[in-house]
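assembly run, all chains below
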Amino acid sequence: MPEPVGFFTDTTLCIGCKACQVACHQWNDLPSRVPLPVLSGNSYDNTGSLSDLNWRHVKFIEQFSPDRNQAAWLMMSDVCKHCANAPCLEVCPTGALLRTEFDTVYINEPACNGCRDCIAACPFGVIHTSPSKGVAQKCTFCYDRLQHGLTPSCAQACPTQSILFGPLKQLQEKARARVAQLHKQGVEEAQLYGVDDNVLGGLNAFYLLVDKPETYGLPSEPKLPSRRVPRSSVAAIVAGILSLLGAVFAFRERTRRGRTPAAAPGEGGTR
Amino acid sequence: MNLFVADPQWGWWIILYFFLGGIAAGAYFQALVMDVVGNDEDRELARAGYWLAFPLIALCGLFLTVDLSQPTRFWHMLFRSELVDAAPAAGWRLLAGAPLLKYWSPMSVGSWALTLFGLCSFLSFLGSLWPGGRLERLLRHGILGRVVAATGCGVGLFVASYTGVLLTATNQPFWSDNVLIGALFLTSAASTGLAAMLLLARVWGIGSPGALARLGKADRWALTLELVVFVSFLAAAGGWLVPVLRTWHGLVLVAGTLVVGLLAPLAVHRFADVSGRRAALALSALVLAGGFLLRYGLVTTPGELLERGPAVVDGAAAAAQKNPVSRVVHGDPTQPVGFSPEDGRLQGDGPGADPGNRRPDFRPRSKVFNGD
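ok done. output:
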């Protein structure tokens, strides 16, 4: 059994070149959007968001001071997080979402029937359905490359080592050391997202951020769908018992007639 | 409220399924109760429930299939498709040996419940086609009847409510923040099921005045219960109710359900005699319209919240996300842990909730290595 692998994405090193996106498109044979995207007017980012065609997406977060004198660009190469407690895999009714021997989460396309429950479950907005294929699509962690001992194409292409690939344990150590280094250099805001089990049991693709997670479009409280099932079910069962009792009492003609035969004919003018 | 998610785009097919499936399930379990505890007049009326339940649930199955991006793969919900596809020659034997049930996933359990509900309601439907026939007598007095009644009542209540639990078991804004959607759908299924039976009885002119009066009584109870659950549902939404009421769909959900589906019908009960034809028709129409608005509003609200973006949750979100770093918690600590094998799973710790649906010679798709 191979050991768990991961991505450590250090957003302080990202220069927004989108080489990871291009490499992902090439390796996975993903077409470009037609017509080609143009500038949105909101951002210099012209590829929008993760989608059925973008399994990697470099986010540009453009921040301005109120007088627009100062500007800062945060950049983050977003991807499927391959959660240890994966909401998509948990709810998938067909078993198309599976966990690989590398501890990553993979969509087996021939099994997927396009119910879209995984899209509703994913707290990061990673999964989308492909209109042409009719199945759910997301980052495969280059499962085929892993099986042949290769680095996933995005990490291979990254020119600044913002995306690091490797055994999860090593990456986690490296990330903690990097945060300590940044703190020492005075970057107090540096923090890791998903490195420990606080976020869905730990993310195999985790991040170093220099602002709060929401700024990067990462939720601070993603939920595991099954956590809500027991309590929802208890509430539904209580409501079910009360509904049933109401019906029984409304129609309990037979039982009441058995006890007080004289009362029956009066009720509703029957008999 | 997580606004960073993608919209599953569950649209009209799903809304219609939630609405009609609720009617079918509600009518069916009420009809079974009428059959078991009621008198002969109630049983005549119970047939209206059976006539509704099976045709509607069959229609729902069609809607759900059409909603899939790959309709021909609808059976993947029930069986390990990859094992079956790998050895098609083994046929039915293999199908029976490769069922797929993830008890922690409402959609997976719901698929089986729908199948079972279809079977039970089909038997009851057949029985009701020939009043006094052999099948109807068997269903009423035999062991088979008791089994069908108990199973049908159970899966009926399940089908009425699991759709709500399914919405809660996501990460969508508003849905995942409320654990009372299942209970709400169940009570609404009861009221809309009774309303549809009342409508059918009135249109076809069946049912004695006494039986119709008892149906009205059951409806009053169902509506009162639904009102209580709906108010609790709004209370459970807490601060998130403000952004929801800022959306059009949220407004339809709250105002539509409350006014059209609950207060107006309860007023009809209070001020008119529902054994009268006109009052009964008005009552049924209001309850059915309200039940529809509830499903429509609830299903479409997260989509509008996502479209409007963070601006729509401004005030409420600021309070909830004041200190995000310290609030990075794993789900809700007050919830029971470990309901699913995915919960509490450590990194590198086995397959989790993966049910193992893959063929023995499984290889990942690859343009380069497999020429896919």
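The first helix of chain B runs from residue 12 to 37.

Residues 30 and 194 of chain B are 7 Å apart (CA to CA).

not gonna interpret more than that til we talk
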